[in-house]
Design goal:
By secondary structure, the chain is α+β, with helices and mostly antiparallel strands. Helix content is 32%, strand content 23%. Strands 1-2-3-4-5 form a 5-stranded mixed beta sheet, with helices on both faces. The longest helix has 15 residues.
């Protein structure tokens, strides 16, 4: 059974593992300062606009989604949201954990009055793209651009 909650500073090591071993093909080579991770997670946990959602199963964090609510001057001052860092540990994939986290992120955004949620992926895998479509996202509509700094 999956429990979904806001990530806490005590989740720093689990999230570091998820992000660097199950999300990106190019993890940083430098050693990570876990104290900084914990400090950031404490800040995010206290921020009503920033949600690092942790999916916990079998007593460990196995999936995560980040949702950021962005205040806005258009659409009658309704905010919009951005989803990033959708990841599930490879040993726990196929159990709909990421879907449950995406549903929770959508619920949070809707409860905050958001008029849209944006999501970008670097993946070209059809299974990944279909996953996002099954979560209610569309490949059609706006065109996304990325500028790496």
């Amino acid at each position: 059974m999956l429990t979904i909650r806001k990530a806490a500073p005590s989740d720093a090591e689990a999230l570091l593992d998820l992000y660097f071993h199950h999300l990106t093909n190019y993890p940083p080579t430098e050693e990570q300062d876990i104290t900084k991770w914990r400090t950031m997670l404490a800040k995010f946990a206290a921020d009503p606009l920033y949600h690092v959602l942790a999916g916990e199963a079998d007593g460990r964090v196995v999936s995560s989604v980040t949702l950021i609510i962005i205040e806005n001057l258009t659409h009658n001052l309704r905010p919009y949201a951005l989803i990033e860092n959708v990841v599930t540990h490879c040993d726990f994939r196929g159990q709909h954990y990421a879907t449950a986290l995406m549903d929770e992120a959508s619920r949070i955004a809707e409860d905050a009055g958001c008029y849209k949620i944006m999501l970008f992926t670097g993946s070209k895998k059809d299974t990944t793209l279909r996953f996002y479509e099954n979560c209610g996202f569309s490949r059609e509509g706006k065109t996304g651009f990325l500028k790496r700094l």
